């Protein structure tokens, strides 16, 4: 089934009775070439690109709940490629290019909106750092425009430019940045993978990983044992727990990151805007709600909910930056479980156990990485070689100290990212 304007019109005029399911709700087979643990955005994208790019279709995606029920549906939907350090910069540039052709490739509306992203700066030191980042982005082949105070005021006049403590001095504009519909991204990749023969198995929790003489042989699940030549662990905040099943200890802590949305409002925020002094970021959804978030809760947790002091901190930052949102009523909040590495950068690598592959440690960057992550992970699983765009996402950098990518400049240790 292909989507088109004519098809939508036809179904609307005939009672919408001609639509078919977007994907097959498959039962697990006893054996597969590849098992992907995790039915979120990264796992579904991995399965899709395994089938599309490498012709590997004997693949199962195992999800303990429902497809797209984890972090892919618990984020603020931001898409960007404004990273600074080598390793991260080329990867997110690669991912953004995939985003830009994703709807046509999947024949699915993921509502990718390149409305532009603005990183604000508030002092001379932040300005200098922003200029360096912008130059790195341009050198990578991406777009970055430095806005002075006057240019920024014309673009986002609703900010509190003259706040005594955090005056807004300017910003870095990333025109190709924006947002996408998180659920639609998961559904589009699920549909594309299923159409190519991948089995999407819901309500199938992995309870063990079978390893024999240093090689993975399959997994144990709540729906029986499944043999596999290769197993990819793509489970975001649960990465440490699943890796433990194979006898591994990963350099990852899991933290809660909260997000919030207000009632629907008339269009008032055209871009994604980030507050340089308060770790606050905001955009407006297609339904009118203001979608925003801030810092982690800063304590390890596997709970998909947050604490009130952090929520209060995020609201304070929002009011400091743009007091106009003060009368908007909060509609709901949620939390995603972030798999945080010591240097704030991800891992896409072989595990040291033959046939077992890891995709984890995405910190704040998971949603925007979905197409790039799936594309690079599929390349690794299919060829046993890292994709050029993800060549620096090695697991052993935490053991050797070589190749650490401290993107935020806060130090390579836990609890700082």
Structural account:
- The protein is an alpha/beta fold.
- It has two domains: 5-77 and 182-251 and 343-400, FAD/NAD(P)-binding domain; 114-177 and 254-340, D-Amino Acid Oxidase, subunit A, domain 2 (D-Amino Acid Oxidase, Chain A, domain 2, 2-Layer Sandwich), CATH 3.30.9.10.
- It is built from eleven helices and 18 strands.
- The strands form three sheets. Strands 1, 2, 8, 9, 10, 11, 17 and 18 form an eight-stranded mixed beta sheet that branches.
- Helix 2 packs parallel to helix 7.
- It is globular, with a radius of gyration of 21 Å.
- The protein starts with a helix and ends in a 17-residue tail after the last helix.
Helices, strands, pairings?
Layout: H1 5-13, E1 31-37, H2 41-54, E2 59-62, E3 78-79, H3 88-100, H4 102-106, E4 117-121, H5 124-140, E5 145-148, H6 149-155, E6 170-174, E7 178-179, H7 182-195, E8 199-201, E9 206-212, E10 215-221, E11 224-233, H8 239-244, E12 253-262, E13 272-275, E14 280-284, E15 290-300, H9 308-321, E16 330-340, E17 347-350, E18 356-360, H10 370-383, H11 397-400
Parallel strand pairs: 1-2, 1-11, 2-8, 4-13, 11-18
Antiparallel strand pairs: 3-7, 4-6, 5-6, 9-10, 10-11, 12-15, 12-16, 13-14, 14-15, 17-18
Helix pairs in contact: 2-7, 2-10, 3-10
